Amino acid sequence: MPSLKDLRNRIASVKGTQKITKAMQMVAAAKLRRAQTAAESGRPYAEKMATVLGNLAANLVQGTEGPRLLSGTGSDRTHLLVVCTADRGLCGAFNSSIGRMARDHARRLLAEGRTVKIVTVGKKGYDLLRREFRDLIIENRDIRGTRPVDYDFASEIADSIIARFDAGEFDVATLFYSRFRSVISQIPTAQQLIPAELPTAGERPAGAGDGAVMEFEPSEEAILTTLLPRNLTVQVYRALLENAASEQGARMGAMDSATRNAGEMIKKQTQIYNRTRQAMITKELIEIISGAEAL
Amino acid sequence: MATFQFDFVGPERTLYSGQVDAVQLPGIEGEMTVLAGHAPVLTALKVGVITIAEAGHTGKRVLVRGGFADIGPDAVTVIAERANPFEEISQESLDRDIAALELQRDATEDYAKRDEIEGQITQIRDAKVALTY
Hints:
The complex is a heterodimer.
Chain A: H1 4-59, H2 68-71, E1 78-84, H3 94-111, E2 115-121, H4 123-133, E3 137-141, H5 151-166, E4 172-182, E5 185-194, E6 215-217, H6 220-294
Parallel strand pairs in A: 1-2, 1-4, 2-3
Antiparallel strand pairs in A: 4-5
Chain B: E1 4-9, E2 14-20, E3 22-27, E4 30-35, E5 41-45, E6 48-53, E7 60-71, E8 75-85, H1 91-107, H2 111-131
Parallel strand pairs in B: 1-8
Antiparallel strand pairs in B: 1-2, 3-4, 3-6, 5-7, 6-7, 7-8
Helix pairs in contact in B: 1-2
Main location (chain B): membrane
Family (chain B): Belongs to the ATPase epsilon chain family.
Function (chain B): Produces ATP from ADP in the presence of a proton gradient across the membrane.
């Protein structure tokens, strides 16, 4: 049986841990609010971009070959997986569920005899995939520090993806991230980047002149070739924003249950402590009484 | 005067959304002023100033660096790569941007790219002049 001193120490250490998890939970809650606003204010841009692109693609003459970013290379031999995770852990299943999804996808592609290349964004994703796919990881970026995601970072990633695509390093690119649905639910998501998946036309914004012939300045193709890389950047940016919000949400949940577990543990330990203390008092009393009786 | 819906979105935030009288846009093939009932056009934007004329106000100016405008008869949407309202920029911040671009220009060997950056620098210089008014 542990001594009273051991029990006291154990309770104190659990209390310390509880304080830490509680603090982390509060910090995550504050960061979550910020990340959520960022994700929400970035949404209109992505939506408008998608509508404009949808209109454009709908206007493209059927049968003509669009830019390669839209139509793909025509084969699907080599796949690029862009895996976005967080830099830090202690956020529940957030990182591992994205990692698992990417891993399953990679295994399936490999089983089908395709070539797989992986780009990881965020330290944790690299750590997760390193063991199994060390040779396949061609690039590994850290999300720098804790500062909010900025557009320039997303554009760096997108530029490097496009450069690799133009160099013919892969045929299909898929982005893995975690979509933020609510504080308690984050959904790991795979999204195809190249060839671009476009929303079906028909949801033209009100008043954009249905059926009217649209003019393009400069040409339709020129616009499409500049718009597509930008669309890619937006998708990456959006994924990073969603990820940031998801990470904080997941951390908040994980820390909340950790705090609750610590509370339960403290309760149990305190009970044991008190029982042991009482047992010892009783024992001492018995010793005194039986000593007095012996006289 | 007839008004139309104008939405102006940047990657990080929505910069403007509301009913306006007219919008002046720096189209890639020339400046254009859009009034209500414009024919549908999709145009790329160069670096320049977007002037938003709201009903009863003098106007609001935003420096935009690259983007697209989707123009319809009663709705205009501008999707900007980078945009700063005039209240947020200063001669110094533009000087910094020019210096950064000059560095980029000197670092590249590709002539087409150099020309492109050179064009952007000129446009930011123009914006600097516009800022003084």
